[in-house]
Amino acid sequence: MEVFKFDFKKLNVYKKSVEFIDRIFKIARSLPREHRYSQESI
After folding, report:
1. What pTM value is reported for the model?
2. What is the DSSP letter of 36?
3. Which residues contact 9 (CB under 8 A, 6 or more apart)?
């Protein structure tokens, strides 16, 4: 009997979501400091 091993990191949706989050953080880091702190309350 073959044992199935699930690898979450090989899923396309996982890869795409990590890329999306990385882009969001890059944008947030490029904002002026006063705008970055105001995002925390959203």
Report:
1. 0.58
2. H
3. 15
